[in-house]
Amino acid sequence: MAQSITAMRPRISVSLSMALALLMLTIVAILVLVVPFWPGFDPVKQNLLFAQELPFKSGTHPLGTDALGRDMLSRLSMATRVSLLVAGGAVAISAMIGLTFGLLAGWLRGPVDAVLMALGNIQLSIPVVLLLIVLVAVFGSHPLLLVVLLGVTNWVGYGRIVRSQVVSLREREFITAVSTAGGSGWWTMRKHLLPNVIPSVLVLAAFDVGVIITIESSLSFIGLGIQPPTPSLGLMISEGQRYLQTNGTLTVFPALAIFLLIGGIQFASQALTSRPSRA
Predict the structure, then answer these.
(1) Which of 180, 229, 189 is nearest to 103 (CA)?
(2) What is the CATH number of the domain that holds 252?
(3) Does residue 149 contact residue 97 with C-beta atoms inside 8 Å?
(4) pLDDT band, residue 223 (cuts 50/70/90)
(5) d(Cα 161, Cα 172) in Å, to the nearest integer?
(6) Counting beta carbons within 10 angstroms of the beta carbon of residue 47, is it exposed (0 to 12), middle (13 to 18) or buried (19 or more)?
(7) Domain that holds residue 98
(8) In the chain, how many domains are there?
(9) Tens digit of each residue's pLDDT (9 = 90 or more) over 1-57
(10) Among residues 92, 96, 103, which one has the least CA distance to residue 192?
(11) Could you tell me if residue 132 is inside a domain?
């Protein structure tokens, strides 16, 4: 009896994580995909006559308005979409760089491995947020440039994981057989090593989406991320904190959107990677 209860606990945990993930991501999906079709959707239109309208007071502005009379529901929808696009693009760039460097370092070893891993260690020695603040201050904060900077400064984790797996896989019998049969290094990496390291990269990417969203929101909060008039969750929190005593929802709603977005992704990742084996 005790053994059966113990065996059920991982399944209950996975089911709970998946249920929470579905709930959170469903709310995010409605916010991103359905709200743009809401009548009167306009995240940048200002109307000072309706400034700081409280939520749930009218059908025109279900979540109220900000200090400039802009519709909060529209701004939340656009800001969440911006965060997803920035995070998705940055993670794709990080994964591609880390995957390429990791494969080359793990397969070629020697000087190539030493140079690439030394480059990664140097980057790790510099705080990412501080490095991004400097780079954004120098090059500007255009959304596309921000995606590139976030991607280029976050590849080391992918590179290390891929390299360690490739070092282990290159000693396996099936890799040795391919090399003995005359398979080139490029063929081996593309056809045999890459499919084996992709799952680990995807798991790390799911985690990194939340990290990138947090970093992007932090940069926007201090004015170095997404610039007005494009709405950003971090910028909305920064603007709303001035009115905490009179209208706290200006800060609570964007903070809740960040929580649902990151939490949903993390719960989904946990559920998908923690499935108990049927054996």
Answers:
(1) 189
(2) 1.10.3720.10
(3) no
(4) confident
(5) 17
(6) middle
(7) 59-273
(8) 1
(9) 444 444 445 566 678 888 888 999 999 999 999 999 988 888 988 988 888 888 988
(10) 103
(11) yes
